[in-house]
Amino acid sequence: YGLAQPRQVVHVRTGNTLYRLAPDGTLSHWQLPAHAAQQYFVAGDALYLRLDGQGLVRLVEGLPQPLPGGQLFAQQGVVGVWARPDGLLIAGSEGLFASDGRAIRRLPGTADAVFARHRPYTGIQLPDGGLVFAAFDGTVLHFATGLEQVESFLPGAIGLDIYGFELDREDGLWLAGQSGVSRLRLPSPRTMINQHNRLTSRLNNSN
What is the pLDDT of residues 8-27, one digit of tens each? Predict the structure, then answer.
């Protein structure tokens, strides 16, 4: 139920087994710990995995290696890990975090409050550095490059359960859901006016 392709290497996970197919056709496999979370993440050339009760670790030849500060996620879910020039950007179920290789710190912004209302379970980084997440209540969350919320919406056409995201060569974002697939272009060609623009209460007329 997981496939990743860092560079020219393909990783596939089935159950608690992780397979690696090298460019020369060599196939390797390792057994993952029984308490490993279902999702694993590719950031640069590295693989990352959350171990319940232990935290976020890096996988090296199938073996978990401690990540400094990774114990912050011993009880908190991880929904995304991405490389950036100064380290890693990590999306936890409670907010956004940054790792510089020595420690992990929480990033300021709206993510804490947004994730408290719409708990995310998977995410993707856009070519412009923005982030998109799917939440358990069916909401799609889009954060701009500065990690401030741009918009949130319900992609009703594909159902509430989003199984995954994928980008195409034109930077279009595909959503796979329980009722089909949908393609989005973000930022979307519309204007969101909400409480962030001091619009309160109910809108009765837009004329």
Answer: 788 888 888 999 898 889 99
**Letter string b/e over residues 30-64, b meaning 16 or more CB atoms within 10 A of that residue's CB:** eebeeebbebbbbbeebbbbbbeebbbbbbeebeb
At residue 106, the 3 state secondary structure works out as: strand
Give CA–CA dist 155/94, Å, rounded: 23
Q: Are 159 and 179 spatial neighbours (Cβ–Cβ below 8 Å)?
A: yes
Neighbours of 20 (CB within 10 A): 18
What span, in angstroms and rounded, lies between the C-alpha atoms of 165 and 182? 10
Q: For residues 88 and 43, is the Cβ–Cβ distance under 8 A?
A: yes
Reported as a single tens digit per residue, the pLDDT across 113-127 is 999 999 999 999 998
Model confidence pTM above 0.85: no
Q: How far is the C-alpha of 9 from the C-alpha of 26, rounded, in Å?
A: 10
Give the span between the Cα atoms of 170 and 63, in whole angstroms. 36
pLDDT > 90 in the chain, percent:
47
- Interatomic CA distance for residues 154 and 104, integer angstroms: 32
What's the CA gap between 10 and 7, in Å, rounded? 8
What is the distance between the alpha carbons of residues 104 and 188, in angstroms, rounded to a whole number? 32
